[in-house]
Input
Amino acid sequence: MQFKTNTSPFFNSSNNVNGVMLQVLLALIPGTLVMMYFFGWGILFNIILSMFFAITLEAIALVLRKRPVMVFLGDLSALVTAWLFALTLPPLLPWWILLVGIFFAIIIAKQLYGGLGYNPFNPAMVGFAVLIISFPLEMGLWLEAGSFVDQSYGFIDSLKIIFGMNIAPDWDAVTMATPLDSVKTGLLTGVDYNEIIQKSHYLSNTLNNTWMWSNIAFIAGGVWLLYKKIIHWQIPVALLLSLLFFSLIFYLYSPQEYATPLVQMLSGATMLGAFFIATDPVSASTTPTGKLIYGASIGAFVYIIRVWGSYPDAMAFSVLIMNMAVPMIDYYTQPRVLGHKQKVDL
Amino acid sequence: MPNSTSNTATVSQSTLDNIAVIEEPKVTIDYKKITLDGLWHNNPGLIQLLGLCPLLAVTGNVINGLGLGLATLVTLTISNFAISASRRWVRSEIRIPYYVLVIASIVTMIEMIMHAVTPELHSVLGIFIPLIVTNCVIIGRAEAFASKNELAPATLDGFMMGLGFTIVLVTLGAMRELIGSGSLLSDASVMFGSIADNWTIQVFDNYQGLLLAILPPGAFIGMGFLIALKNIVDKKIARK
Output
C-alpha cells in the first residue's frame, strides 16, 4: 500500500516489487548474453521454458490458494526465480528435468510457504539443489563452449534434444568438465595443481575461459543493481571478501593443493550467487550487520563445500544453509531504535 | 476385607488392591474408539509424530516399511499387554526403567527371531530393529494407555497403534519407491522368501527415477504431504 503525497517536498519511491524485479531481470541480461554466446541456444531455451513453467505453476498454485492471479503474477517474482534457476542449468537439459526443478522452486519452496515474502528459502536455489541431488549426471552435462557461430547444435537441433525427439547427442564427445569440476576431481586424485591448469580446456587459456567471462558479465549486472540501489553492498562484498580470504589463506599455505583465489572468484556461480542469489530480499538477512554476517558465512561455506564437499560448486547449498540461520542472525543484529538503548532479550 | 488401611507403614497386597480399585473406576470401554484412534484420529505417525526417526529412515521402499512396521506392531502389542498385565505391581517411581526393561526384552526377542527367519530383511533394516526400543510410540502408549487400562483394551490399543504406524510406513514407502524408482514391492523376497521373487510391479517403464525421493529429504517432504493430506480429509469430513 502506497500513500500518495501531494505536496512538493516529498518523493514517491519508485521501488515497488514490480520495479525491483524488472531491474533484476535487466541486470541479468549481460551475463545471460555471454553464456548464450559460449553455450548456444540451449541457455535461451532453458530461460524461456523455465519462465513458461514458472508462470503456469504459479498461476495454478494461486488459483488453488484462492489468491488474485494477475496481481501476484504481475510482480514478476516468478520470472526472476525462473531466470536465476535457468542460469544454473546446463544447456540442452531435457524439459522434464527442468519442470521437476521449477516445480520444487515455485510450488514447494515458494507457494506452499505462502508465496512471495514468506519463503524462508531461496526458491531458485531449492530447485537447483533438488536437481543436482536427483540428477547429478544430467546436471553435469555442460557443452563444450565455443563461440556462437560454431555451436555443435543449432536452433532446431537444440529444441529437438530438449524435447527428446529422436536425437541424442554423443555426450562424451560434446561435453566438457567445468573449471571447478576439473579442479575438484584433479585435486582429489592427487594431481598437481599446475598440471590441472594445463589439462583443463578452460583454465589453460584465458580467452577460452567461458566461466570467467560470464562471471565478469554478472559483476557488471551486479554493479548496475548496486547503482540502482536495488541491492545493498553488504552481502556481495562480505561474501566475496570472505571467499577471497579463505582461498588466499589456503592457496598461500599450499599452492599445489588448492586452487588460486582467482579461479575461486571467477568460476561457477560465484558472481551470480554473490550479486543475484544471496541478495534475494526475502530469504536473506535484512539488518546491516546481519547482512555482513550472512554474506561472509555464505562465502566461507562456499569455500568449505567446494574444497571438501562432494559437489564441485556450492553456492546453492551455502545459500540454503544460511537461509536457515537468517531468523537468528536478524534477531541478534537488530539495529538500535532511536531513543532506546541497545538491548536484546537473550 | 481386613482392616489394613490404618497401618500405613507396611503396604500389604490388599492395600494395593484397594488403591488399584479406587484408581480405576469402571467405565465402559469403547473398542471402536480405540481402533479409530490408533488408525486415524490419533495416528502415531501422522498426529502424535512419534517414532519419526525409523519412520523417515527406512521407508525407502514398501518392503522395508512393512518390515519395520510389522516389527513395531508386534512389539507394541506385546509391550502393551505385558505392561497392562503387570500395572498393579509396578510402583510409579520406577515405572520408566521397568517399561524400558520390558520393551527391550521384547525387541531383543523380535530381533533374534527376524535374524533367524528373515536374515536378509534383518540386514537391510540393520540398526533400526534394535532401535525400536527407543521408539517413543511404544513407551508413549505404555505410559499413556497400557498402565491405566485393562488387559483387553490395552492390547487392542497396542495393536491398532502399531497398525496405524505400519500403514503410514507402508504408504510413505510406496510413495517414495514409486517416485524414486518407478516400481512397487521391489525386493519382496527378502521378507516373503523366494515365492515373492516376481512380485515387483514396474509401474513406469524406462523410468529414470527421482533420486531425491529415496534420499532423506524425500522422506521429510513425503511425510509433510501425508500430514497435509490427512488434514485435508479431516477438514472435508468436518464440513459434512
